[in-house]
Request: fold
Amino acid sequence: MSGDERTDDSAVDFRYLLSQVWGEPRDRKLSADEMAARRDERVRSIVRFAYDRVPWYGRALRERGLEPNDFRSAADLALLPVVEHEDLSAAPDAFLPRDVRMETLLELKTSGSTMMPRRVYHDPEGIVAGWAVKLRERALRDRIVGEARYRSASLSMDGNPTLVREHLRTIAPAVWKLVSESRKFSVFEDTARVVEGLREWRPQHLSGYGSALGRLFRYLKESGESIPLPKAVSFSSDALAPLERRIIEEEFGVPVLGNYGATEAFAIGFECEKGDGYHVHEDVCHVRIADPEGRSLEPGVPGSIIVSNLVNRGTVLLNYRQGDLGEAVAGQCGCGRTLPRIQLLAGRDMLFIERAEGIPLHQYKLYRALKDVGLYRWQVVQTALQQFTVRVISLPGQEPPKLEVGIREAMTDLIGAGLDITIEYPPELERTRTGKVLAYYRP
Ligand SMILES: [Zn+2]
Reply:
């Protein structure tokens, strides 16, 4: 059933729902062309809806002399102006359909990790569709665990996912029954007590915040304590540090899967068993990578993750700068899935380098400059005005003194004189908790 045929009624359309849930959750049946056709149909449908009903897009299209018919495929979404966090927080109502019945929508707030708090409303069908495609992630997990019914536990907080689950129970009890039961441990709980709880519950699948899972396994390694090991670990919400991921995968031998979602779009992507990037749920969410001016970038070039939620008719967000960094991955994945892939890069997007003089610089400019120096993997943290730490993983044959001269010259040229730059060579890049992470790139 296409988006055009969707009713505007507030009740969940169960035919639509079931086609989502049972149609092809394991997705390998759809060829890339079939998936693209489904995606593009949703693009056309939601652009028309946005043009007719959502003030911000009606205005944006008219100002550019565009009409819904100019949008034939997902690539055309780039014709829209990039929606920034500031646009949404400044005028949240402009992204809501005219005459929408607010009581039918679920209100979510973004977490306080960014400077611009945003309110995002989701309509019932968007919630269900977003949840349904996550069955792909579940199918993969089930295969790794080796069965379909098993105990899960999560290390998380009562946040938006809990609200969504509760809402699902009200609007679609039949779907809610399919949500697996999980025992929850708070991220604020003392690790020793979490360990105790896990020994008792014996989950075969452990999910949660990357940072909390990382802390748990580091604790197990350092203390020598043990738990019945889960068969799979999945993380979301915040990054799992590379070092900690390695502890889980290599020292404990447990496969790790990342899921990528946001308050603005529940299901953006997921890591498959090959672990080479995130497959995008492109039938509900289109993703492109763009430079600061909003132009799409080639695979392998880091840039802003620009998301279009193709199913939500509450707060309509198309061509929206999510605030994360990533790069497109070329070619088909070895797992056989045809869903396109992106690589997630740690660090927040839209961070500017503050300078003693002159206007702030977008970090992308620094990325370009340091790449030209010949850096391979690196991280830049601005710890204070004029003060930076650059962490470098060098390639064999690269001479540190020469690299350092290049780094200092490039940064001085770009940012200004009088910088205090510390250059380090850690064995691995870790996300830092102090200072702004300006850039963090991996191959
Ligand atoms: Zn794959």
User: Anything to note?
Assistant: Residues 272, 274, 279, 333, 335, 337 surround zinc ion (CB under 6 Å). Residues 32-53 form the longest helix (22 residues). Confidence is low (pLDDT under 50) at residues 1-12, 21-25, 431-436. Residues 128 and 266 are 10 Å apart (CA to CA).
